[in-house]
Amino acid sequence: MKWQRIPLGPLQTNAYILSNSNKDCIIFDPGGDAQKLLSIIKQQHLKPIAILLTHAHFDHIGALDGVRVIWDIPVYIHENEKMWLKDPALNGSLYFMPGHEISVKEATHLLKEEGEITVGSFNFSLFNTPGHSPGSVSYYCKDIGAVFSGDALFAGSIGRTDLPGGNSEQLLSSIHKKLLTLAEDTIVLSGHGPETTIEAEMDQNPFLHGF
């Protein structure tokens, strides 16, 4: 099983593809540039089976319909943001991309409870990690020792909390109680920027000290 990071869209938001030896794959946060993402998937002869969203801000969902229309695959999102996919005001595209608002079809699976989820042969532990947005979630994959953290935790930083539904205290609590409890060698696959590790962020992230 392996992962790859693909920056997409106007903010170069990280989409991720997690694939296994059978060429099945999960797509995380297809944020834009649908044709680029489709080309990579087809060149590698991968077979997408689902799209998992960490949250529904516009820069994480821009290519959603462009991808799922090809393979007719399910989409997972936390129930707190189920309306954000269709609403440009909620997903932020109305304000950040005037004239290019994003409205995509609703998700097929709404996440609520934390715990183990299985998609095909892929197994994840789901953590609710709100603060950047009310429905932010993180997907921990034990098989690869990595967590797909969306915009909760970055290398040397944390997600912004000045957008609608953001809450800085809630975000710091999410990071400390959910993400920093993972093994220190866990790879953090963030929504923007390079990968990092839990150990590196515990030691070096200035936003996490003094909480």
Short description:
This is MBL fold metallo-hydrolase. This protein is α/β, with parallel strands linked by helices and 211 residues long. The chain has helices at 34-43, 58-61, 64-71, 88-91, 93-96, 168-179, 198-204; strands at residues 2-8, 13-19, 24-28, 47-52, 75-78, 109-111, 115-119, 122-128, 137-141, 146-150, 153-154, 157-158, 187-190, 196-197.
Q: What pattern of helices and strands is seen along the backbone? A: EEEHEHHEHHEEEEEEEHEEH
Strand content: 25-35%
CATH topology: Metallo-beta-lactamase, Chain A
- The CATH top-level class label: Alpha Beta
Whole-number average pLDDT? 96
Query: Biggest sheet, in brief?
Result: 6 strands, mixed
What's the multimeric state?
A: single chain
Spans of at least 5 consecutive residues with low confidence: none
CATH superfamily assignment?
Ribonuclease Z/Hydroxyacylglutathione hydrolase-like
Overall SS class: alpha/beta
Number of strands: 14
Protein name: MBL fold metallo-hydrolase
Domain Metallo-beta-lactamase: 12-192
GO molecular function: hydrolase activity; metal ion binding
Organism: Fredinandcohnia quinoae
